[in-house]
Every structure is written in structure tokens, then in C-alpha cells.
Backbone:
């Protein structure tokens, strides 16, 4: 294993240092606050937008990612936190909880402020120098204003419906995260009444980024925002009235779906009903323009029943995420990361695919190696006349999926197709319901997992009749979703295997999911919520025993989040016994590393780079047995106890070495995109020391496994 010996440095530039403590009490002496740790992750993402070595449009993309992450943070985490601490409609007055809310609010406001500062002082001015300009009304010349006026009259105004507020026109329903305007009016309306406030909803069908024609753009690519178009002509909506003030606004709502699975008779129908109301959950955040008059923002806060600290006055568009549309227009190579093409591990189809797997397992490391091999595996199975059954889990697969189409084909060809569809995959519920309908229409058996538990395991099984009439099992197990789009920018491992023990146990898990029977004892797979947490604890304690007996002991684990207290306590105990522990945790981490007497042998780092680190790897030295498990589960309470998860061993020695040399070692060596966590919850970015060469794990893997090309600046 590679040890990281670089000294840490303070966070670079304007990256704030975040404190990890949340509520008071002895518990926080050993655990960091989950919400604050999640916000700290977004500061690390924002650091990519700060980094002048990152291409300009990619910096803008990171700004948008921060915006999207904050949206989900409020929609899910803050909404959940508030719901858990509300009794009979009243928010708890517990001092510890109130202090936690204050810390969250301070962190989020600082993060949003820096996000917009960076947009206005660096990203947009630098884009303008590169010939890409977003023009506000005052920036547009006469010809451009005339074009925008015509666009407003032709495309926008017909779709607007201003609502003047009075007893017959109460405050309208405002859709979650939609763009709206509040307008303050003077004078009397057409009926002689002094209606003073109006609401204008921006059409959701219109693009938020509008490209101006080349003939009026000058020597650049010129754009304007839909919000700017409406701002410039909002007075045209109120004939005979004086517009005194106005502001754009956006409300973020609780977006978790909830159904009582014990009570409903049809989960799919219940969720379809809930999807209709998701857009109108409880408000949790209000965003307005920075120059919004206080009387208007106070009015909106009252309408949404929000306190003052949930107001975010931003210097720019209230939905920064939609600025990502700019990336679809601008094609300058110098403003993007160098092109990268995943390498094909095998293009074998049909019989070749299965004969190859009978000879050896195939390990895939996405996005460096193409996901197409998995698609070929399922497609080959769907068309092979000797394949009698295909089983697969679906958590996230997207609206368009070759995999799902292959399953539909297989069902139509008369194969036994069983698909375990997770209907409650957050924000993918609608797509999954649609696939469930199509699969059932094709004749596939569709089930929705286990009541009360999300099916998060990533696995597929092909059963094929071979020589002598024997049924042989072929399996795919992965750390990521069956989503061809995300496999291009999420790092994940997948294993294709014909190993009898593993593949037959995959079938046992499917039987457990469909038949709801108790799972048989599994020798190879670790299955949540039954055996995964105990197996992890057992493996950690085994390393502790080895250390107490005086032999080298080592644990390395890579995951998205580390929050489960039982696992953290086991790691603390192992550290005290002398086990050397390295944890690569991309997002939230509740473990305090480096505390004398508690966790002095534990180091925690986070990698934020071009690709989203998504693979889960558990390594235990185990007296040179080098046990390696891959899985779908983070070390979180929800994954270990409230989900169907599978962790699977890599048994082939060569492939085991690959997982270590590709999935762990480079990330421990990284001194470019690595952030190291200290015992107080602060993250500091690594950088090369002295004459030490810079090393980026993701670049190394692109060069070693894929095809990375370098493009000269224009």
C-alpha cells in the first residue's frame, strides 16, 4: 500500500475552514456533525470552481453542481431535520438543535455568497474575455434590445399570467424551485381597487439561457437570461399601472416522498399520487434577488411561513443550476477538460461473452473502461436462445436505457425476465415507474423490493442452459447504477463472473427479494440488512486482533459517506489496538481522525476531481490474505439497516491487485485533488511538497486505462 507522507497546508484561496462540531454534548467529542460535514463537502466542490488550473467552463459547471447539491441538501436533509424536530406543528426550542440550525444557516449563507462572488468577479468576466458574454439589459445595445423585445413579445409574453393578489386571487401555488417574480404596483387596478402585489410565474417550458443571433452579437457569442428578458419588460404586463419594485424569487420545498407502505395496497399507484404533490411540499428556503426590497421579501417569507434566516438574497439568477445550459452552446475546446474516451475491455458478443466468462472474471473500472461491456452482456443474454432467465435490479437507469430495452426484448422473446425496480429512488421515481409499466407490458415479472427497505444493490443474473442441459449462472455486480449516462463521469467498479458460488448466491438474493423469504446463509456475499454490518464489524475486529497479537494490521476503505456510529466505534477501537486505517470518504464523514487515544491511527481524505468518486471498496490486510470487497453500500445507518445492499468479494488474485492498484493506491498518493480531514472537522488541501511531482489519481487512471488526449488552446 502507498502511504501519504505529504504535509498538509491551509485551504487555498478563499476556501473557508469549516468546523465540524454541531450540537453540544459528550457525543460530539467523538462524532462530527453530519449536516456541517455535508456542507464542507460542497466547499470542496466549490474549490474546483476556484481553481484557476481548471478550464473555465468546467469551473462554471462546478458552480452549478454546488447549486444543485445545495438544492438537494435543503429538499432532503434540512426538510428531514426540521420534520424530526417538529411536534404538533411547532419547531423544537431545544438549545442544541437551535445551535445546530444556526451553524447550518451561517455555513450555507457563506457558501452561497462565495458562489455568487465567484460567478460575478471571475467566471463571467473571464468568459467575456473568451468571447462568451451573458448580457444584462444595461449591457445590450440598441439592436440587441430590439431583438430581446421581439423575443419577449413573441415567445414569452403569451405564456405569462400575472396574478394580482386580492381576496378572489389569493397567493398562488408556487412550484418547487421554479422561477417567479413578485411585483409591487402603484395606482388603482381596472376596477378602481388598490391591489398592490402581483405574482408572475416564469414558463417552465422556456430555456433559461437564450442565445442571441450572430448578426447582432458582435465578435462574441452573446446570451441573455430568461429572468433578464422578463425583468426588462415586466412593466408591459401591467398596462396603466406603475411598477414600483419587483424581484425574482424561488422557493425550495421538502421533496421527500412518503407513503405508508404497510397501509397502501399498491405502492406504484401511491407513489404516482405522491409525485403530483411533491412540487408543493413544505417550504424550506427562499431565494430572492439581492436588491429585493425588504417589504417584498418579508411578504414572501410570511406567505411561505419561513423565518428570516431561511432567506437567501443572491447577486445573480436565483437558480444558478440553469446556467449549466451554457455548456451546451459553447464548444471551445480550450474551455473544457481534454477529451477522454473510455477503453473497451472486450467487444465480444453472443457466445464469446459467455465463453470468456467461463475462462475468467472480467473487472470493469468505470469511466476509464467502457460500460458498453455490461450493455453487451445483457444484450447478448436477451438474444441468446440458450439463455432461459435474466434477473436484474434497477435503482437508477434514466429515461433512455439500452439495458432496459434489452430486458424488454428478452421478455418478448419468451425468456423469464425478473426485474426488481426500486420505485423510491429519489428523483428517479417517475422514470422507474415508466420502465416498470413497459416491462410488465412486455411480459416481465416486476417486483418492487421489500416493504420499508430500498433495494439499492446493483446486480444482474443470467441463467443459461449449456452442454448436458446444465443450467449455468453468470452475474454482474457493481458499485454503481445501471445508468449509461452517469457511468461516463462516476467512478465505479463492476465484476462480471461465472464463479459458481458468487453467481448462485446472487440468485439466492433475488429469490429473497421476490419471495420475501429469509435468505439462506451466504458464504461469499455480505447482504444488508442482515449480514453486511456484522461482517464489516467482524472484519474490523479481526484486524484489531491481529494488531494486538503484534502483526501488521491494515484497513483501507473508500466510500461516499461514513456516518454509522457502530462502524465508527469499531474503527476507533481498532485504531487504539494499533491498526493503521486509511479512509477515502468523498462526502460527509462523522469520524474524527487523529484524536490521541481515540483515532490517532486513522487518516481520512476526500478526493474531488473531474469525475465523481462513487465506488465503495473495503480492504482488510488479514495477515496477507488481502481481502477485497466491492459494494453498493456506504457505511451509513440507512445503507446497513434500511436498504437491500450487497457487498461482494474479488477472489481472483490478479483482479484483487487491480482493485488495490487502481481504486486505492492512487487515491492515497494524490496530492492534487485530495483534501485531508483533521480532528476538528477542517479539511486542508494537499499539494506537492518541495520538488515533489504533482500526482492526480484520476489523470493517472485516464492515462493508464483510457484514452486521454490533449487539445491546444484556440
Residues:
Amino acid at each position: 500500500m502507498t502511504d501519504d507522507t505529504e504535509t498538509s497546508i491551509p485551504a487555498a484561496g478563499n476556501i473557508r475552514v469549516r468546523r465540524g462540531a454541531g450540537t453540544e454534548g459528550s457525543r460530539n467529542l467523538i462524532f462530527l456533525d453530519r449536516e456541517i460535514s455535508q456542507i464542507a463537502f460542497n466547499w470542496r466542490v466549490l474549490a474546483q470552481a476556484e481553481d484557476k488550473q481548471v478550464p473555465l467552463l468546467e469551473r462554471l459547471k462546478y458552480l452549478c453542481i454546488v447549486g444543485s447539491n445545495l438544492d438537494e441538501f435543503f429538499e432532503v436533509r434540512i426538510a428531514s431535520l426540521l420534520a424530526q424536530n417538529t411536534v404538533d406543528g411547532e419547531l423544537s426550542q431545544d438549545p442544541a438543535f437551535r445551535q445546530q440550525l444556526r451553524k447550518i444557516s451561517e455555513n450555507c449563507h457563506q457558501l452561497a455568497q462565495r458562489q455568487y462572488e465567484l460567478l460575478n468577479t471571475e467566471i463571467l468576466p473571464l468568459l467575456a474575455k473568451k468571447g462568451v458574454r451573458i448580457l444584462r439589459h444595461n449591457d445590450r445595445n440598441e439592436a440587441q434590445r430590439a431583438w430581446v423585445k421581439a423575443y419577449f413579445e413573441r415567445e414569452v409574453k403569451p405564456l405569462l399570467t400575472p396574478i394580482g393578489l386580492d381576496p378572489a386571487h389569493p397567493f398562488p401555488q408556487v412550484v418547487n424551485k421554479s422561477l417567479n417574480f413578485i411585483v409591487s404596483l402603484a395606482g388603482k387596478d381596472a376596477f378602481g381597487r388598490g391591489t398592490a402585489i402581483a405574482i408572475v410565474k416564469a414558463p417552465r417550458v422556456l430555456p433559461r439561457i437564450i442565445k442571441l443571433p450572430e448578426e447582432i452579437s458582435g465578435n462574441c457569442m452573446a446570451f441573455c437570461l430568461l429572468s433578464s428578458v422578463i425583468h426588462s419588460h415586466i412593466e408591459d404586463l401591467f398596462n396603466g399601472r406603475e411598477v414600483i419594485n419587483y424581484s425574482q424569487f424561488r422557493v425550495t420545498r421538502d421533496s421527500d416522498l412518503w407513503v405508508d407502505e404497510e397501509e397502501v395496497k399498491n405502492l406504484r399507484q401511491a407513489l404516482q399520487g405522491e409525485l403530483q404533490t411533491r412540487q408543493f411540499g413544505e417550504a424550506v428556503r427562499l431565494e430572492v434577488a439581492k436588491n429585493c426590497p425588504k417589504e417584498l421579501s418579508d411578504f414572501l417569507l410570511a406567505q411561505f411561513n419561513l423565518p428570516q434566516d431561511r432567506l437567501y438574497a443572491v447577486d445573480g439568477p436565483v437558480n444558478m443550476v440553469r446556467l449549466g445550459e451554457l455548456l451546451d452552446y459553447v464548444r471551445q475546446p480550450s474551455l473544457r477538460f481534454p477529451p477522454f474516451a473510455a477503453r473497451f475491455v472486450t467487444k465480444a458478443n453472443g457466445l464469446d461473452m459467455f465463453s470468456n466468462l467461463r475462462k475468467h472474471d472480467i473487472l470493469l473500472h468505470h469511466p476509464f473502461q467502457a460500460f458498453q461491456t455490461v450493455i453487451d452482456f445483457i444484450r447478448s443474454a436477451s438474444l441468446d436462445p440458450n439463455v432461459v432467465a435474466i434477473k436484474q435490479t434497477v435503482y437508477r437507469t434514466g429515461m433512455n436505457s439500452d439495458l432496459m430495452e434489452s430486458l424488454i426484448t428478452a421478455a418478448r422473446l419468451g425468456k423469464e425476465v425478473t426485474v426488481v425496480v426500486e420505485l423510491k429512488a429519489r428523483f428517479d421515481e417517475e422514470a422507474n415507474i415508466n420502465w416498470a409499466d413497459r416491462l410488465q407490458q412486455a411480459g416481465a415479472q416486476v417486483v418492487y423490493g421489500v416493504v420499508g427497505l430500498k433495494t439499492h444493490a446493483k446486480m444482474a443474473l443470467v441463467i443459461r442452459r449449456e452442454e448436458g442441459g446444465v443450467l449455468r449462472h453468470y452475474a454482474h455486480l457493481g458499485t454503481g447504477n445501471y445508468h449509461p449516462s452517469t457511468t461516463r463521469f462516476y467512478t465505479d467498479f463492476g465484476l462480471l463472473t461465472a464463479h459458481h458460488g458468487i453467481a448462485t448466491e446472487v440468485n439466492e438474493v433475488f429469490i429473497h427479494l421476490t419471495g420475501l423469504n429469509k435468505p439462506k446463509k451466504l458464504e461469499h456475499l455480505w447482504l444488508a440488512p442482515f449480514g453486511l454490518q456484522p461482517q464489516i464489524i467482524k472484519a474490523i475486529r479481526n484486524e484489531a486482533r491481529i494488531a494486538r497479537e503484534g502483526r501488521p494490521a491494515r484497513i483501507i476503505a473508500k466510500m461516499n459517506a461514513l456516518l454509522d456510529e457502530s462502524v465508527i466505534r469499531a474503527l476507533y477501537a481498532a485504531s487504539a489496538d494499533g491498526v493503521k486505517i486509511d479512509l477515502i470518504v468523498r462526502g460527509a464523514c462523522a469520524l474524527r481522525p487523529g484524536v490521541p487515544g481515540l483515532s490517532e491511527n486513522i487518516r481520512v481524505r476526500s478526493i474531488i476531481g473531474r469525475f465523481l468518486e462513487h465506488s465503495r471498496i473495503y480492504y482488510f490486510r488479514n495477515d496477507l490474505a488481502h481481502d477485497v470487497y466491492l459494494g453498493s453500500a456506504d457505511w451509513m445507518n440507512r445503507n446497513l439497516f434500511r436498504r437491500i445492499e450487497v457487498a461482494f468479494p474479488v477472489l481472483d488474485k490478479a483482479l484483487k491487485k487491480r482493485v488495490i492498484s487502481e481504486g486505492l493506491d492512487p487515491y492515497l498518493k494524490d496530492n492534487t485533488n485530495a483534501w485531508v480531514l483533521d480532528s476538528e472537522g477542517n479539511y486542508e488541501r494537499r499539494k506537492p511538497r518541495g520538488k515533489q511531482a504533482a500526482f492526480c489519481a484520476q489523470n493517472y487512471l485516464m492515462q493508464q486505462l483510457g484514452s486521454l488526449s490533449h487539445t491546444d488552446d484556440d
